[in-house]
Amino acid sequence: MDIKYYIFLSIALFVIGIVGVLTRRNAIIIFMCIELMLNSVNLLLVAFSKMHHLANAATSATAGSEGQLFVFFIMVVAAAEVSVGLAIIVMLFRNTHSVDVNFLNRLKH
Amino acid sequence: MGITQILFWALAAIALFSALMVITSKNPVYSVLWLIVTFFTISGHYLLLNAQFLAIVNIIVYAGAIMVLFLFVIMLMNLSKDTEPQKNKWLKLAGAVAGGCLLLVLVAALRNTETRMTELGSGNIGLIQNLGNVLFKEYVVPFEIASILFLSAMVGAVVIGKREKKRVEDEIADAEVVKTEFHQNEPSAFLNR
Amino acid sequence: MKNLILLIPLLPFLGFLINGLGRKYLSKTLIGIIGSGVILGSFAISVYAFLNLGKFTGEKVISSSARILGNPVLHYYDFIKVGALRIPFAFQIDQLSTLFLLIITGVGFLIHLYSTAYMHEEKQDHFGRYFAYLNLFVFSMLLLVMGANFVIMFIGWEGVGLCSYLLIGYWFKNVDYTKAAKKAFVMNRIGDLGFLLAVFWLIAKLGSVDYSYVLTPGVIDRLSTGDIVGITLLLFLGATGKSAQIPLYTWLPDAMAGPTPVSALIHAATMVTAGIYMIARSNLLFSAAPLTLNVIAIIGVATAFLAATIALRQNDIKKVLAYSTVSQLGYMFLALGTGAYVAAVFHVMTHAFFKALLFLGSGSVIHAVGGQQDIRYMGGLRKKLPVTYTTFLIGCLAIAGIAPFAGFFSKDAILLSAFASNKVLYAVGLLTAAMTAFYMFRLLFITFGGSFRGTEEQAHHIHESPAAMTIPLIILAVLSIVGGFVGIPELFMHGGEKLADYLSPVVASKEIQVEHSTEWILVILTTVIAVVAIIIAWMRYRSYREERKTPLARALENKWYVDEIYDAIIVKPLNKLGAFVNTVIERGTIDALVNGVGKAVNYGGRQMRWLQSGQVGNYVLLMVISMVLLFVLQFFLRK
After folding, report:
1. For helices C290-312 and C225-242, angle between their N-to-C axes, nearest 10 degrees
2. Is there a domain that residue A14 lies in?
3. Do C632 and B105 touch (CB under 8 A)?
4. Which of A26, B68, C185, C639 lies 20 to 30 Å from B49, alpha-carbon distance?
5. CA distances from residue C344 to C106, C329, C333 in whole angstroms, order as listed
6. Sequence-ordered list of residues with C-beta below 8 angstroms from that of C536, at least 6 positions apart, any chain
7. What is the pLDDT of residues C52-110, one digit of tens each?
8. How far is CA B3 from the centre of its chain?
9. Residue A26's domain spans which residues?
């Protein structure tokens, strides 16, 4: 399979995530869009790891495995991030009774 | 066109469609469900690439744990109905156009890259045995550090989520104050000028 | 030894600090004791240094004609050290500076002593302020004469200018007095700029300002003629400011606004002679520039003459003395210009004695008649102020150049030198000497002769001054009588010219080739002319009557309208230029530019404010757009 298709697929998913972040106001949806973007990158990393493996399998049996380990660590970080992020959203909701990010314009002041 | 290629295109189509549904659904619960579908298709891609460990972990961690956490929070806040106030239409359009431009630019930029093949269905680096070997031989320290990260994330989540000890009346008053404050600031929205 | 010398300027500085900081807490007596005591201490050390000069300079007298010159520079630390330029903080204790040290601290002490009585009616903290300034002045003046390079001299030079300003404006509640102070300061600054430029020029050309390096024949030869003339002219410009010569002399008469002892110390005995000291110090440099010497001689004699004419018809006792000071300073410059450096220094010394005496005497008179300074309302004071009268008479005789008083010898030396170089200079100088004798005795007769013309109340008030004021008068009178003998010429006494002998390692003395008979004629001529002038003055002013108002007299009374001319040709155009610059350049251009920048930024900021909505969404949108632009730039436009 040509690596190009994976690249385009990942770009498409990533841009969908960006558009989601840009157009939605619900903090939870925005958060999910960020997860979507992370996953698109994960997919690309795995595809690249396999590409490298195909190219270098002759010299090293484990060639390309770093890419998949990266994905593993990204998932670790994402899980930690989600736990903290959701805690923040819960806190926000408790204080404002809303999850609308447009209320969060304190950066202006 | 072999079976793997047919599977690739089918999975790609479903992934894109469900991702679009994530950002277009009015109801956050549907968004979560569509996102789970997306994650499943991505896991499918991992399987196609013979990355079995990641495919399983993806389903367990993302689709299983994280998405359930999202659902749980949404249910907890009772946001299932469409509570989202309408965002400015022009701003939405601007976001969509900006995203489309980015897509166009990236695709146009990477259109002419050289053709390199990735292997589907074969190659065994994605197997648990091989990944485990690498992980516990060369990446032991990051692995351990990841556990510290988790610990701190846990502590952080607890600290943030903890309710401060206050009298109930005070808290209600506080909440009111904060809310009015936020609403007062609200009119300065982007394109109202 | 080095530290002892350091004490000479340090003691007055200490006195300045104590009196300045403690003026509200110390009693007047204590302030007076401290203020005068520190100067006395400096004087004692100066005398010690004078007597043991050989130890400082390392000079050894082998025989009466041969001696080994030593190094008189005392190096303390490096004041400025930039690149190759090295300006040390060092003192030079040699014959010339020691002589000035003695004059400054000796006369200075007498005047301090006098001030304790003269200023006694001032309030306590003003009294302290007065002595603090006076001590600071002595400190600066000592720095000026002791410095071993032009930069240290310049520090003192500026310091005395500042103290002069502070002391002229001592009674700062009177607006006229503060204006006089400002005038003095600005005039001095004009001259100081010349001095400063000369120092820069020296640094640029030679890379050093040390006397021990610059003022040696070998080094001066390395300068081109243009450089030497430029440097010396600029130095002379500095001297005209400080020593009140044409065209910068007008501040000195106005400076009489200060207390009389200040006039005696600063504007007669010490500060105004700084210019002469500076030129005498750098005499080697000046001798290499005949053009500058000619300029100095002409300016000097012109100043002497002009000031003497003005002094003929002044009615303020201090103004007469002020113009006579300007005139005498002109004499000194005449001496410098004709190359008679020793005569100039000699005249500085004798002038310090008799002019300080005259000023202090006038202070005593003013004190006696209760602040009156106009001599038309005085008269008949001879009987009531016997000590003052006697000493004042001695001062007048000295300044008029009657043998054997001090002024006779120094003035004679100057006129002799002028005669040897140019007959016209000599003629004008002689005329000036006659006028000097005339106006001084006019002053004396009007003030002390006849009968008292003031109010009854003043007449009752008149009394001789206290001992603290008369003792300095007597001492100075004695010095005015005997002071001239240190420079007695060969003509009168074999083995004379002691001063020239003493100064010879530092100041070149000029051999004047004049026959002894000619010299005798000159001396007798001078004396006769002075005596005739005195007799005319006696006949005219024996009994006081109103002076006629001829146009010439009115012009003299108004000081030849020099102040008005300066006002018209310098001050007014400058004011106009200032107003023009203010409205057109300052407000029209610079302010508009500065404010315009501010306004543009302000306006731009207000227009840009909508970008900062504070909502993360907008920031992300902008981020994405910029990313797109960057990608476009990177992939498509850079090819």
Report:
1. 20
2. yes
3. yes
4. B68
5. 19, 9, 7
6. C438
7. 887 766 655 555 545 555 667 888 888 888 888 889 999 988 888 889 999 999 999 99
8. 29
9. 3-104
